[in-house]
Amino acid sequence: FSEIVHALEPKNKALLQKRDALQMKIDAWHKANGAPSDLAAYEAFLREIGYIVPEGPDFSVSTDKVDPEIATIAGPQLVVPVMNARYALNAANARWGSLYDALYGTDAISEADGATKGKGYNPLRGAKVIAWARDFLDQAVPLAGGSWAGVTKLAVGGGVLLITNEIGETGLKDPGQFAGYLEKDLCDLQVLLRNNNLLIEILVDPTSEIGKADPAGISDVWVESAITTIMDCEDSVAAVDAEDKVIVYRNWLGLMKGDLEEEVSKGGKSFVRKLNPDAEYNTPDGGKLEVKCRSLMLVRNVGHLMTNPAISDKHGNHVPEGVMDAMITAMIALHDIGAGGRRKNSSKGSMYVVKPKMHGPEEVAFATEIFTRVEQALGMPLDT
Q: What is the rounded distance in angstroms from the CA atom of residue 150 to the CA atom of residue 112?
């Protein structure tokens, strides 16, 4: 780490000095000219001082070992301060969420005609939620005949999802959307469906408050939600010294090892929040399907600008915080992607770093050099 810091510090400072020089020229231009009225002339000025650089030749760039959450699954991404363990756990666990809860507790469903949220369960609002969810299922996983609103029974037989509704026996319009199921686990039946590479789970529990009133005993519909989460060491945190950075790195360590916990008090009760474990379902062809129940976690390092007093170089200067973040967050990630790693965050063995606030190709190239040196120091395969 010391070698990396002392080799890269001068480059880091030179890049920041170039930023300052450009900014001084831009400030002087605006003081002399005010707001730009001739955009062509303003662009020419920015090119002249090197703020806008000539476009280089065409090139191609690629990588391998990319997880499906990055490569092929489209969905929401959260950003959360990794300094706050509870927020970090909540975000990581937001891979799945109850559609019923999301609809009931927000203004996605109108409170008109007596469908108010209130303090207790309101059956009128619940009916609106269920109707909305059934309409969603009709669009996402349509039936061969009839509608989800008329479903009275769900069952699995011979690797097929058997559905009874207002027209009698039916099934999925596209049987390939039936991804898996569980029986007598969390509830009587859990049905896993797939649409646009995202999963939907229908829970059948006739003994639950919601399931009792449902003709098919459906108690909830869960959907894949936050596919990825940026665990942020930068913009959403204020980690200004060694004590703060230790909290940041400790929480990232807990996420990579899978043992981060936080005691939470809510409604006069306390409980321990942990990372959700993965789930395993039976597939229609008799096999097993492991389903991830946590967001794929990326980590946002600090940019090139900041230094931090947590570590000093041989001259007593605070080291560049971006270099420190790169080294320490990558070293921690070895618990997941290193030799013998857990492979619970990245099944492909990759680490995903968000590097913010870079200006121009030189700063991007410098970030690449940081990552390459860290990979070499930690024995990571190139481009991990």
A: 24
Task: Write the single-letter amino acid at 243.
Answer: E
Write out pLDDT tens, residues 297-329. Answer: 999 999 999 999 999 999 999 999 999 999 999
**CA gyration radius, the chain:** 26
Give the model confidence (pLDDT) of 285-299 as tens digits: 999 999 999 999 999
pTM: 0.93
Determine whether 104 is exposed, middle or buried from the number of CB atoms within 10 Å of its CB (0-12, 13-18, 19+).
Answer: buried
Structure tokens at 276: 């959700």
Provide DSSP, 259-279. ---EEEEETTEEEEE-PPPPE
Residue 66 burial (CB count, 10 A): 14
* Exposure string over 127-166, b if 16+ CB within 10 A, otherwise e: ebbbebbbebbeebbbbeebbbebbeebebeeeebebbbe
8 Å CB contact between 289 and 278: no
The secondary element (H helix, E strand) that includes residue 311 is: strand 307-312
Angstrom distance (rounded) from CA 307 to CA 245: 12
Q: How far apart are CA 377 and CA 99, in angstroms?
A: 45
* Phi, psi of 364, deg, nearest 5: -65, -45
